[in-house]
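Tokens for chain A. Residues wanted.
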């Protein structure tokens, strides 16, 4: 329950998205989200901590693995307050997203 690790099967997609965003040269905001199920663990006392850790995990990947300049990146964590989907038993709302301005 409650992980901020990037699943290995997601890495090729993350690499491809990272390459596309790198070409834009724009600033990037990585957003972390969770579902509405409360969490309280030693690592993540609340969904706020979990969602921000998810976002900063992606930032670290972009910097360390793909060579992004840290000054282009920022992170936001929304906890359960800006869910991407309604939570169901089959599919939760724990997600990470990246946004950029194409100006």
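Reply:
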């Amino acid at each position: 329950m409650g992980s901020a690790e990037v699943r290995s099967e997601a890495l090729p997609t993350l690499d491809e998205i990272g390459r596309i965003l790198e070409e834009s040269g724009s600033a990037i905001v990585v957003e972390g989200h969770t579902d509405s199920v409360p969490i309280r663990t030693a690592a993540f006392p609340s969904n706020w901590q979990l969602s921000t850790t998810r976002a900063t995990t992606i930032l670290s990947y972009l910097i360390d693995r793909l060579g992004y300049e840290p000054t282009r990146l920022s992170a936001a964590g929304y906890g359960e307050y800006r869910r991407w989907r309604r939570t169901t038993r089959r599919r939760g709302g724990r997600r990470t997203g990246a946004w950029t301005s194409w100006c």
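The helical segments are 11-24, 47-64. Residues 28 and 73 are 5 Å apart (CA to CA).
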